[in-house]
Design brief:
- The chain is α/β, with parallel strands linked by helices and about 425 residues long.
- Helix content is about 35%, strand content about 10%.
- The chain is built from 13 helices and eight strands.
- It has a five-stranded mixed beta sheet, sandwiched between helices.
- Helix 3 packs parallel to helix 5.
- The chain is globular.
- The C terminus is likely disordered.
């Protein structure tokens, strides 16, 4: 409901009548947002943790796009990715792996707002978790701050600070909140999550000073605020468009490539035709044939990102074009020292991965696996950070292009 309310207030074609049909069959406000079902929703979501993976994938794609398309004269990609998550989201394995990947690769364009109300669906969060989240995220390599989630000025200040701090670390804002605030019968309890206090809604509306006869009420002050915000964002977009047009005129080849990636419309059937049939008696290892298949697909989608946990550089691979990302460096003296931040510099190169060159990548180094929808599943070994060098492990990602249907769902600001 949060995203639907935000889209409606922001001026998207999502009338209040649709909000009243929340979770109803054939409405444009399904319980879990679905891509191409609701205007403004770019990714189908559902499982807890998936949205965190989406946001990390979006942040990675933003960094790669900036490195590939920005020039010394024109900056067209410099936005931040803002995601909202709760206790249950961050408990999931995919979220834990994704946040580790974000820190390791220095995705400082990612801001995660953690609605920390200490509640999960079935019980209070203390039943299943006991982490000190600020210390945990700082240890992983994030900037972390804890604030009062009901203080709008504190939220604004934390977000502005996060956006202004380009130190090679993703940011998490731990916003402590009281779930069910305004409904004393369930406030601060798991019932406020599962039951929502629906049977107490009339009394709660009265206590909050909301009109009793309007279940979907927006004050004139809120309408005015969003109208003013829309005008400011429109002016900012107009300035960006001037920069983009100048960039496009100066870089026609890059413009054509970017247009092709945005408007890509190959069907699954068309992609399957690019993959040759393999003999039924073939005994090729799937890690090898899988790499071959991805290379055929990459001919049509040269910017799609994929990868492997342990076999991105198989000994029998003859050649492959890969995109490599070098995260920020970490000091050799890891005990009690702060991170040394360097610019996040990804680049693409044709790297011949043969039996002789495969040894150039130490086996203890890890590679992320980024699935088609930009879900990030970094499966890294348990070996410690290398202490003999100031350079952290490389992350390898084969090149291909995500389609407009596969964009992760997060907020670009």
């Amino acid at each position: 409901m949060f995203i639907y309310s935000w889209l409606a207030l922001s001026g998207y074609d999502l009338p209040v009548e649709e909000l009243s049909k929340f979770r109803a069959l054939r409405s444009h406000t399904p319980g879990h947002p679905e891509s191409f079902e609701t205007v403004g929703v770019e990714c189908t979501t559902g499982p807890l943790g998936q949205g965190v993976g989406n946001a990390v994938g979006f942040a990675l794609s933003g960094k790669m796009a900036a490195a590939k398309y920005n020039t010394a004269e024109h900056t067209i990609f410099d936005n931040h990715i803002i995601a909202l998550a709760g206790d249950g989201c961050l408990q999931e394995g995919v979220a834990r792996e994704a946040v580790a990947f974000a820190a390791h690769n220095g995705l400082d364009n990612l801001i995660l707002i953690f609605d920390s109300n200490d509640v999960t669906l079935d019980a209070m969060a203390k039943v299943t978790q006991s982490e000190d989240f600020q210390k945990m995220y700082e240890a992983i390599g994030w900037d972390a701050v804890t604030i009062d989630g009901h203080d709008l000025d504190a939220i604004k200040s934390a977000v502005e600070t996060a956006k202004a701090t380009n130190n090679g670390k993703p940011k998490i804002i731990i916003a402590k909140t009281l779930i069910g605030k305004g409904i004393p019968e369930v406030a601060g309890t798991a019932k406020a999550h599962g039951e929502g206090g629906a049977k107490f809604i009339d009394a709660a509306r009265l206590a909050l000073g909301l009109p009793a006869d309007q279940h979907f009420f927006v004050s004139e002050e809120v309408k005015a605020y969003f109208a003013d915000l829309k005008a400011k964002r429109g002016a900012a977009h107009a300035e960006w468009t001037k920069t983009f047009d100048a960039w496009a005129a100066a870089n026609p080849a890059l413009k054509a490539e970017l247009d092709n990636s945005v408007h890509y419309d190959h069907s699954a059937e068309e992609l399957l035709k690019l993959i040759p049939e393999y003999p039924a008696e073939s005994k090729a290892a799937t890690r090898n044939s899988g790499g071959e298949i991805l290379n055929h697909i990459a001919k049509a989608i040269p910017n799609v990102i994929t990868g492997s946990a342990t076999s991105s550089v198989p000994p029998r691979t003859t050649s492959r074009t890969v995109a490599t990302t070098q995260p920020r460096t970490r000091p050799a003296e890891t005990s009690g020292s702060a991170f040394v931040s360097t610019p996040w510099v990804p680049f693409a190169t044709a790297w011949p991965m043969t039996a002789s060159s495969a040894s150039a990548v130490p086996p203890s180094w890890c590679s992320p696996t980024i699935a088609a929808q930009a879900f990030v599943w970094p499966l890294c070994p348990s070996s410690p950070w290398p202490t003999s060098s100031r350079t952290t492990p490389w992350a390898w990602a084969k090149t291909a292009r995500p389609t407009s249907r596969w964009r992760p769902s997060a907020v670009c600001v």
